């Protein structure tokens, strides 16, 4: 089972929208998808309640149950687990980062979102997962589109983050689909442009994740249990790593 976590400190970056749309794409491609909703806003859960079908499955979870969920999911045939994390950098986000085979970090190409990205990157580095992270430029307006995309790409590349070449543009179809409990790929001809972008995003992430070997299930469960029971704040985790680095340098 592969595990993708959606992480970004700034609220409104599109984590839930991208996760639910990719979940439907995954089902279309033959995956059995589980979306674990850890976000206090419960956006994925609300989307699922309006959907009228259990594909993909969405669980409104508490962090303490994450170990049980991930451990038992493969026994139920789940092949892809998508974790929708909270929009703040706490022990829950850290647990989601640590257990993931790949971290998806959506960001809007504006000053506030790009500015807050630095804290997310610091946590990813401290957790040793920056190399497994993909930045996705999301909700791009037509006004100044190329300049905004260029700026966002440059910022993420400075942070040494892989940038997905497929940009997700601002399209009303995403909101229309969400309100109906659907994905844009289910809107037919009216959602074609948005659907093409989501399918291209799925293709990129799927190829990238397939190139990496997922961690054994037992190892994943141990890592989740460790993070939940022995959680460190981002500041504590960063501070913990500095003495180790200094010790290596002294040698």
Question: Can you put this structure into words, describing what you see?
Answer:
There is one protein chain. With 251 residues, this protein is α/β, with parallel strands linked by helices. It has a single domain (2-250), classed as 3-Layer(aba) Sandwich (Rossmann fold). The chain contains ten helices and seven strands. A seven-stranded parallel beta sheet has the order 3-2-4-1-5-6-7, with helices on both faces. Helix 1 (15-28) packs across helix 8, helix 3 packs antiparallel against helix 9 (217-229) and helix 4 runs antiparallel to helix 9.
**Largest sheet at a glance?**
7 strands, parallel
Number of strands: 7
**CATH-defined architecture:** 3-Layer(aba) Sandwich
The whole-number mean of residue pLDDT values reads 86
Q: Tell me the CATH topology.
A: Rossmann fold
Strand coverage percent: 5-15%
CATH superfamily: P-loop containing nucleotide triphosphate hydrolases
Q: Outline the low-pLDDT stretches.
A: 231-251
**How many structural domains?**
1
- The DSSP helix count reads 10
Order of helices and strands: EHEHEHEHEHEHEHHHH
**What value does the Rg take, in angstroms?**
18 Å
What's the CATH first level? Answer: Alpha Beta
Residue share in helices? 40-55%
Main β-sheet, spatial strand arrangement: 3-2-4-1-5-6-7
**Gap between N and C termini, in Å?**
40 Å
Shape: globular
Indicate the structural class: alpha/beta
